[in-house]
Amino acid sequence: MMKPNFDSMSKAELRAYVMSHRDDQEAFCKLVDRLKADSTNQTPHPFPKSLEDVAKVQEIIQEKTQKLL
What we know:
Blueprint: H1 11-20, H2 25-39, H3 51-68
């Protein structure tokens, strides 16, 4: 059986392939690499360390959600 060209697949197509071929390690690694590459442009956020931090995160999430609606 010939493997598909993972580099030519969209991220959604690759994810669907991985979900239906869970034992394909090569496809999984390609998907992880692609997700990591996409995440390099994201702003890192530290893990909340206190209840006050958790409350702040919840507020930020609510604000961002409201902007999307």
